[in-house]
């Protein structure tokens, strides 16, 4: 079983989870940690550490979904992903969006976070589209 930890700047993570609850329902094995102006980097480090360590004892792996490559949430998450002594494998995917978050529901029962991270990255590419009018040909046979 996997856990998905959403880590973002500001209230984005909690807003994504709240929106998912509205359109999908409760996402199992999903939680969030946010970097806030009030708490700053040190508070985020503490919150992230507490959350990821609490999760680690309950799952086979963790996929952290971040908002911005090289931002603080991403950098902190990578310290756990690249720590060979962390109790479970951790993968970090950046560029979280709403469709990608909803996709995680299909992967909770998986056990390989690396494979799931790769799949989410590839599938996320299909979630960003440019709107174009739909051309409808009218049938003269009413």
TrEMBL record:
Q: Name one GO biological process term.
A: phosphoenolpyruvate-dependent sugar phosphotransferase system
Annotated SUPFAM superfamilies: PTS system fructose IIA component-like
Keyword Transmembrane among record annotations? no
Presence of keyword Transferase: yes
Domain PTS EIIA type-4 as annotated: residue spans? 1-128
Q: Which GO molecular function annotations are given, in alphabetical order?
A: transferase activity
GO CC list: membrane
| Keywords, alphabetical | Transferase
Pfam families given in the database record? EIIA-man
PANTHER family linked = PTS PERMEASE-RELATED-RELATED, PTS SYSTEM MANNOSE-SPECIFIC EIIAB COMPONENT-RELATED
List the protein's name: PTS system, IIA component, putative
Q: Which organism is it from?
A: Photobacterium profundum 3TCK
